[in-house]
Amino acid sequence: MLIVSEEQWPRALLRAQLVEEGWDAVGARSMAEALREPVAEPGRGPVRCLVVDASALGPAGETGSERVEELRTRHGDPPVILLASATIRPPAGRWTETVRRPTRVKTVVEAVERAVGGRPTPT
Q1: Distance (Å, rounded) from C-alpha 12 to C-alpha 109?
Q2: How far apart are CA 82 and CA 91, in angstroms?
Q3: What 3-state class would DSSP assign to 3?
Q4: How far is CA 108 from the centre of its chain?
Q5: Where does residue 121 rank: exposed (0-12), middle (13-18), buried (19+ CB within 10 A)?
Q6: CB-side exposure of 78: number of CA atoms within 13 Å?
Q7: Which of 10, 18, 22, 47 is 20 to 30 A from 117 via CA?
Q8: Separation between Cα atoms, residue 66 and residue 64, nearest integer Å
Q9: In what order do the strands lie in the sheet with 50-53?
Q10: Which residues pair with 27 in a beta bridge?
Q11: Contact, 80 vs 112, CB < 8 A?
Q12: DSSP label at 44?
């Protein structure tokens, strides 16, 4: 999993819960940082899902949606979960699912599981 969110604590909490559930998850503060994440890294599996907070897309999400597509292409077209405000229209994009904030971490984890087709397999 690759989590892109400008907000440190929500990103850290989501990452911690995904790791607790058995997923390999990393976080990035911005789309630029996420695009610097290596596609393949020793000891890590492929990115199976992207979780992107709409706030990391920039104003109106215009160029950010293009960067999500670039990120998606780099990682073999994984599903993308968009975290978006409940009061603001989410930016246009090819989102697998949109989770409205405020929400629970568990709700996001469940969206990830739906997007990838189940829970992680034990290693």
Answers
A1: 13
A2: 9
A3: strand
A4: 9
A5: exposed
A6: 25
A7: 10
A8: 5
A9: 26-28, 2-4, 50-53, 80-85, 97-101
A10: 3
A11: no
A12: -
Look-up of token digits 């568990």: 106
Separation between Cα atoms, residue 83 and residue 51, nearest integer Å: 7
Question: Which pLDDT score is estimated for 120?
Answer: 81
| CA separation for the pair 111, 82 (Å, rounded) | 10
Write down the pTM of the prediction.
0.92
Tokens describing residue 12: 């850290």
Helix (H) or strand (E) holding 116: helix 105-116
Task: List all residues 6 or more positions away from 60 whose beta carbon is below 8 Å from its beta carbon.
Answer: 91
> What radius of gyration, in Å, describes the C-alpha atoms of the chain?
13
The one-letter amino acid at 58: G
Walking along the chain (123 residues) 10 residues at a time, the average pLDDT comes out as: 95 96 94 92 90 86 79 96 93 94 96 93 65
Query: Domains in the chain and their CATH numbers?
Result: 2-116 (3.40.50.2300)
